[in-house]
Automatic annotation (TrEMBL):
Gene3D superfamilies: L27 domain, Metal-dependent hydrolases
Keywords (A to Z) from UniProt: Signal
PANTHER family listed in its UniProt record: DIPEPTIDASE (PTHR10443:SF12), MICROSOMAL DIPEPTIDASE (PTHR10443)
UniProt-listed Pfam families: Peptidase_M19
One MF annotation (Gene Ontology) recorded for this entry: metallodipeptidase activity
Stated name of the protein: Peptidase M19
Amino acid sequence: MSLRRLSLLLALALGAPLSVHAVDFSAAELARAKALQQRLLTLDSHLDTPANLARPGFDITHRHDHNALSQVDYPRMLDGALDGGFWAIYTDQGDRSDAAHLVERDHGLRRLMDIREMLAAHPDRFQLALTADDAARIKAAGKRVVYISMENASPLVADPSLLGFYHAAGLRLLSTVHFANNEFADSATDPKGAEWNGLSPAGKALVEQAVKLGIVIDQSHASDAVFDDLLAMLPVPFILSHSASKAVFDHPRNLDDARLRQLAAKGGVIQVNAYGGYLVDETPREERRQAEQEIERRLGSWDDMPIEKGVELARAMAELDQRIPRRRATLDDFFVHFGHLLDVVGPAHVGIGMDWDGGGGLPGMADVTDLPRITAWLQQRGLSEAQIAGIWSGNVLRVMRQAQDYAAKQAP
């Protein structure tokens, strides 16, 4: 992950001055929203927090406030009334050589083990969820919910049969591709353009196997042609775990209104995300980009940086924001996307996947402690408690239940 992707979070981590925006909530509204969240089951469909589990010095049970490297930990999940979600096995796209595929295979397995080790180390605080019904039971026991997902299926290229192992170890949500094309699918953002015009033959086979296992398919990061393939071939709904509206901002990662309606007609769900670069054009000018690279050279790569350096990194980026500012998405921009999705497909087909610890976050929504602002906004908009419950977890769990029920009926 690049400093460019994280620059917003870095400024936020030190409490940089917020942009003036129209969205505001009183203390009473936020207290009422938090109380509602504490009653409801609240899940986020895209947590990149597993990237921190092997980071030197990181402890999921300790607070890491004002730290550019962390937005999610157990104490802040309690403060933000987040019950858990889908913890992602994310793998960078390599050069697609045989050697790179082996590296990706091993990386995915290590990240899976990081998640399982967290569960084993803290059984009083976290619990693995395997079915759609597990989440409510885990919440009732006073623990945080851990579904396992995979962002980018490249760890499966060297050996697609590993999908069965991942499923046995807890995998319940699978995306085929990330920023660049791979052997399974076209990415929405590969500068070379389409390679397969959707899913490759291997990608279709992988998706078919996932459906047999009851794994939900995630279309985020894949091209529109992949969406069309999934719509045509899947016997069950699918989701977009962290995406936004193309009508509001024409980014290839976002979904157009026609496809949104097709997704809803199939029973699927789009989980709105808070990565600023998908909400507005945040492209920095060259001077800013070079300054960010210089900070990275000075402090070291994001992947290997000890957690204690995150405070220094936040200070450096906050200073850079003062010296060479760049356009930032605001909380208003986030709610414009959210509102448009609700208007197009209704509250039964929208959820929340903020991209925490993977680039998500906005002024006023810096980490998971700010999540009651979303509930307060939904309440201001006039949604019922049942509708808000669906957005926070019910919709995505309905899709999971349908996928698992279908797989059970097809089993010999």
